[in-house]
Amino acid sequence: MPIDWRAHIESTPSVLRGKPRIKGTRIPVSLILGYLAAGQTADDIIREFPDLTKEHVAACLDYARELAEFEVVAS
């Protein structure tokens, strides 16, 4: 089942200077993606940050996927 990252990720100027983060936390998406890039599993990340769930980690990946699909439209 696909995860809708919008249900788990938010960005507000007053928290972490607007960096995308897991809703209700100060855990930035970039931190989770960095752990994944370093070879950590979702379970490893959740052990380090018990407030996170596997859905949060999957939402970060879906967010990154959507950013990677961004296309500039020529005018």
Main beta sheet strand tally, sense and closure: 2 strands, antiparallel
Proper CATH architecture: Orthogonal Bundle
What proportion strand?
5-15%
Number of strands: 2
Q: Mean pLDDT, nearest integer?
A: 94
C-alpha geometry: globular
- What is the H/E order? EEHHH
Number of H/I helices: 3
Task: Tell me the number of structural domains.
Answer: 1
Uncertain stretches of 5 or more adjacent residues: none
The radius of gyration over CA amounts to: 13 Å
> Multimeric state of these chains?
single chain
Class of secondary structure makeup: mainly alpha
Describe the structure in brief.
With 75 residues, the chain is mainly alpha-helical. The chain is built from 3 helices and 2 strands; from the N terminus they run ββααα. The protein has one domain (5-68): Arc Repressor Mutant, subunit A, CATH 1.10.10.
Features:
Arc Repressor Mutant, subunit A, two-stranded antiparallel ribbon, single chain, about 80 residues
